[in-house]
Amino acid sequence: MNTTKEQRAPLIEEGLIVLLCGGTLTDVCRNLDISKSTWYRWKHEYNHGKIELSDNSERFLSIINEQKRKIIFLERKAEYLTLQIETDRSLWHKIKKSIKELFCF
């Protein structure tokens, strides 16, 4: 892929977003149709490895991070509720058993 440094900047930014979102370098390189060594060379050439994301990318990453926090919260809430259900179920079985014993069912 013959590109200029200016053309590579948005490609590097796109790749960094994929990486920050949990993608792999293999995914990035496949999407950009480049080798890993080319990726590292581009990244180094672009601002000597100090890549600053555009405002849109920063906002996008902020939204992704907020969504990740929400997912973690919801996963924890689901774990808590699952534990509550199991506890309630266990308690219900104990009550049911006590009622049976009490009324000789």
Can you walk me through this structure?
- This protein is an all-alpha fold.
- The protein contains 4 helices and no strands.
- Helix 1 runs antiparallel to helix 2.
- The model has no long low-confidence stretch (mean pLDDT 83).
Distinct helical segment count:
4
Radius of gyration: 26 Å
Strand content: under 5%
Shape: rod-shaped
Mean pLDDT: 83
Structural class designation: mainly alpha
The biggest beta sheet is recorded as: none
Task: Give the helices and strands as they follow along the chain.
Answer: HHHH
Number of strands: 0
What would a concise description of this structure say?
The protein is mainly alpha-helical and about 100 residues long.
Key traits:
2 domains, 0% strand, 105 residues, mainly alpha
Topology:
Blueprint: H1 5-20, H2 25-32, H3 36-45, H4 55-103
Helix pairs in contact: 1-2
